[in-house]
Design a protein that fits this description.
This protein is α+β, with helices and mostly antiparallel strands and 885 residues long. It has 28 helices and 22 strands. The strands form 3 sheets. Strands 14, 15, 16, 17, 18, 19 and 20 form a 7-stranded mixed sheet that branches. Helix 2 packs across helix 3, helix 5 crosses helix 15 and helix 6 crosses helix 15. The chain is globular, with a radius of gyration of 38 Å.
Amino acid sequence: MHLLREWLVRLWATLRPQRSDQDLEAELRLHLEMEAERGIQAGGASSGAVQAAAIRAGGVAQAMEAVRDRRGLPWLTDFSRDLRYGLRGLVRDPTFSIVAIVSLALGIGANSAIFSLVDAVMLRTLPALHPQELEFLEAFGSEGGGGAPPYPCFERFRRESSAFVGMSAFATDQLRIEVDGAVEQVFGQLASDNYFTLLGVGPEVGRLMTPGDEALSPSVAVIGYGYWQRRFGGDPNVVGRIVTFRSQPFTIVGVTPRSFWGLEPGRQVDVTLPITLERQYVADADDWWFRAIARLRPGSTTDQATAQIDNIFQSYMKDRDTSGLRSRYFARMRTMPASHGSSGLRSRFGKPLYGLAIVGALVLLIACTNLGSLLLVRGAARAREFAIRLATGAGSGRLFRQLLTETGLLFVFGTAAGLAMAPAAIAVLTGFFTVGRNPILLDVSFNWKLAAVAVSVAVVAGLVTALWPALRALGTDPQATLKDSENRLAGSRRLAAVTHVLVVVQVAIAFVLLVTAVVFARTMVNLRAVDLGFSAEHVLTMSLDPMIPDGAPAERRSQFWADVLDRVRALPGVRAASLSVLTPLSGRDTNRGIDVPGFVPRDPTERIVHLNHVSEDYFRTFGIEIVRGRAFTRRDAEAAARVVMINEAAAKAYFGGRDPIGSHVRFGKSDDYEVVGVVKDYKHLSIREAAPRFGFAPLWQPLNGISRITLAVVTDRPRPLLAQGIAQEVHTVHAETLVSDVTRIEDQIDATLVSERLVSVLALGFATLALGLAAIGVYGVLSYSVAQRRAEFGIRSALGASRPSLMFGVLHGMVLEVVAGAAIGLPLAAAAARVAQGLLFGVNPDDPRQYLLSAVLLAVVVAAAAVWPVRQALSIDPAETLRRG
């Protein structure tokens, strides 16, 4: 308690120095007066007694300073003075301050944002109980995974496997539900009733599904936190509300916690319903339609668990025919770690994101080296100041603390600015993912831990570079420094060597990042230049679901399609309109087996053809060329002869050099379909892949039931106005129709290029930042060199040196450093391009043009940075230089 009281008194004296000094001065003068009185009583003279007492005490000022140090906290006082002095120094040199702070802010902010994105996609574990115990169960073969086995086999896993505590099935899809009389589309899932219990996820409100809910008595639903906020405004009384799915009411019993989005990163589950809704699929012994997750029993290993379920699976599949596909997709069972959720998003974006993280780290490194060179140059420029302070009695430790404080201020402001810009950078990054029909939703909250790592790296690097000028200042001989000419900056070969090395490092890193940006920019240009085989300009698409019951007459749905097309085509500004099940690059796909007379498949997969149902004008809407035969018309109706169109890839695969027009094909057990036309190939799922084999059937002659259809419209009108007008016309035809997924085909193209766009834009941004930082470093070092060699340039000019000669004297060292940096960066850039080859398109990593272009850009930037220092050297007055000595 006594120690605490003493510290509080010292702190008060430090925070209120004026009042404490007044009290102290009054107390000291009282002591002097008492000492003077004793002197008078001892026989001394009364005149000058107080002055004599002060002399004997050593002086009032000295006594006050000694007592002040004992009463207050001198280190805190010194620190506050250092802060004030450092702030004044930053204000006096705004150019240096702004450059240093912005360099740090950009490096720290960019890395914090990228690390947060990497964490959200690649590193974050599920918000479940002991997620490391969770495993996905999936069949696999030589060509990949095939999902969980049929539900009856899954039930055998549950009964016969002892290596797991429990198992749960789940399947996700777009669901059409009705809430308060309004039909809407949500991302939902069907799941086992032990799904949430198995994961160890608790409710935000109410309860979640529990064992027994699969009986559907009563039918219950669980909604996600995001949907709860978006649709119900976070109403805590949402429990008990009704949602309707397939004309069946479900009672909302609870809300999942905010942190739980589901098991698929990038998707947010809105509604969860019991999986037994799919009675037909649950009973089907040959349908592969869901995924399964299980929790390992303590003490069990994944090898033991895999062996158990594979034995059960082999027994189940022993007498089942999988049409020759078993070895490719259903050969064996395996377990896959589920602690991070499904791996689809990580597989797609893992390599690009880790590459961007490395690029961001390089930018932070170049920012630190740039700041280091600036601090070194600034320290050399302040050599005279340091010498004066040391000569006038400043302690070396005091000066050392002052320099560290000034550097610390730079990092405080730079870090604060970087962390402040990180949320905006995160918003920009996530914006790349939220395009197209199925946007990728990411919970990219700011990650303080990863941001702290970036800040720590920057601080350590900065402090290391700050120690050099500080230690150099302490080792300076004040007298030798003060004897130099007033305008000459003290320097040393060692300092110059250090700054030159830093410039080489910056140039090398900048060259690597520049080459990276060039190859990815070329990739993006090549992808944009690919002939898609269709026209995406001014095409607007939207999904239509009339919610017509499956048992309704087919004519009812056909009439709906025809009426919608007629009304939409009559709208002002609509140049063409069509209906189809699939649209180019939508991410959706259907396929069927095809039988062509005279074609003998060497492999069962050669029978598989992608299949689309389209209305008349589909090919005109998308600008797809009909190379042979005719297009569909409204006369190709249900009662008419069955017809089909194919693309060039299918014609070549199934007919070789024969003319397919007039030939007949079958799709499984369907009727014969006559080939009436051949269309040009176009990209279907990916721009990178070759066009697949495609067949097209008239919408009015469906091979299978069609519920959801896509309307495509070519128009010059603004999207919101046209979409609203189309929705009104559709609801006029059928008021209960769900209109959703309104998007442009251009947005669909962007959605297929998310990773390429993300990498190319960020690589270009980072390369620009690196070039800017390198230019600043070059400018700082050259300016310091010119100032240090001012007398030399003045004397050379007086002796008749030409301007080109002076320019060579300024630039020759920098040219060598830039060449050395580019030479070091060249093999590193080549290695980086080869590593990223899987992300490139139409770009050879060894193409010399991209390295030459990068070198030219680097040379231009360095030359621009050298202009002002060269002008400074050329403007030195020889007479003034000689006069000043």
